[in-house]
Write a structure and sequence with these properties.
This protein is of the alpha+beta class. The chain is 21% helix and 33% strand. The longest helix has 23 residues, at 2-24. The radius of gyration is 45 Å and the shape is rod-shaped.
Length: 252
C-alpha cells in the first residue's frame, strides 16, 4: 500500500514538473527587474546582472528591465516572463528565491531558498542567489512557440436560385373595404338552430345559425360569420359589396 502511495506521489510530481516546463517553454524572453525591492539602488551589488547571467545559462533570452527590448517584446510584454529575486533575510543570514511571473503577475515558477552567512553584502547576495539558482535543476527550457488552435477554413457554396416573379393576387372585389363601428350591446333570443340578436330599441339585427365549432355562428341572410374574440363578439359579413366588421357585446 505504501509503495502504491509513493508511486502515485512520484507520478504526480513528474507530471506537474513536465506541465510546468512545457508552460515556461512557451515564453520567448525573460525580463529581469533592474532593481529588486529589498535593495536601495538599481542593480545594487550587481544582483540583477548576476540573475540575468544565470538565467541565460538556462537558455533564456534575457534582458534587464532598463535595456532596449526587441520590437515584438515592446509590442507584447506577454512574450516574456518577469524574473525577480525576493529576500527573507535574518540578522545573521541572507535568504533569497528566484521567482518567474507572467505578464499578469501570476507566479509560474519559484526556486527553492538560497542561503548565505557571508558578512560582506555583495558576497552574501551572490552566494544566496547562486544557491537559489542551483535548486532550479528541475527547470528545463527550450523555446517552443505556443500552439494556437487553428480553425480550418471551409468554403461554403450556396446555390442561388432564380427569383420567381410574384403573381399578383386576384382581388374578388375592388370596391371591398373594412369598416369597424362602435361597440353595441345585443341580446340573444333562442330560435330553432340558433339565435336572433336584438338591440335595445328593440329591433332584430341578426339571425345566427349554430355550427360544429364552439362560439362560431353563421349569419343568416348575409355572407358572413359571428365569432367570439376574448370577451367580445365579432360579426364579419358583406353588405353591398363592402366588407363589414362589427364588434358587439352579446348577452346570451
Amino acid at each position: 500500500m505504501i509503495k502504491k502511495i509513493a508511486f502515485s506521489l512520484l507520478f504526480f510530481i513528474v507530471i506537474s514538473a513536465y506541465s510546468q516546463n512545457e508552460q515556461i517553454s512557451n515564453y520567448k524572453y525573460v525580463i529581469v527587474s533592474n532593481k529588486f525591492d529589498f535593495l536601495k539602488q538599481a542593480d545594487q551589488y550587481q544582483t540583477s546582472s548576476l540573475t540575468k547571467f544565470l538565467l541565460k545559462k538556462k537558455g533564456f533570452t534575457v534582458f534587464l528591465s532598463n535595456e532596449t527590448l526587441p520590437e515584438e517584446l515592446v509590442a507584447n510584454r506577454c512574450l516574456a516572463l518577469i524574473a525577480n529575486v525576493t529576500e527573507n533575510s535574518s540578522l545573521f543570514s541572507v535568504k533569497t528565491k528566484i521567482d518567474l511571473k507572467d505578464c499578469y503577475g501570476k507566479s509560474i515558477y519559484t526556486s527553492k531558498e538560497g542561503k548565505s552567512k557571508e558578512k560582506d553584502f555583495k558576497k552574501s547576495y551572490h552566494e544566496a542567489i547562486r544557491m537559489a539558482y542551483s535548486t532550479m535543476s528541475d527547470l528545463e527550457y527550450k523555446y517552443e512557440p505556443k500552439k494556437e488552435n487553428k480553425i480550418k477554413a471551409t468554403t461554403v457554396v450556396t446555390k442561388v436560385l432564380p427569383v420567381k416573379k410574384s403573381i399578383p393576387l386576384v382581388k374578388e372585389d375592388t370596391t371591398k373595404q373594412e369598416t369597424v363601428l362602435n361597440v353595441e350591446t345585443l341580446y340573444a333570443q333562442t330560435k330553432p338552430n340558433g339565435f336572433q340578436l336584438v338591440n335595445t330599441k328593440p329591433e332584430i339585427l341578426f339571425q345566427v345559425l349554430n355550427t360544429n365549432v364552439k362560439d362560431v355562428f353563421i349569419i343568416k341572410s348575409k355572407n358572413g360569420i359571428l365569432y367570439k374574440s376574448d370577451t367580445s363578439w365579432i360579426a364579419e359579413y358583406y353588405e353591398n359589396n363592402t366588407f363589414i366588421v362589427k364588434k358587439y357585446n352579446i348577452k346570451f
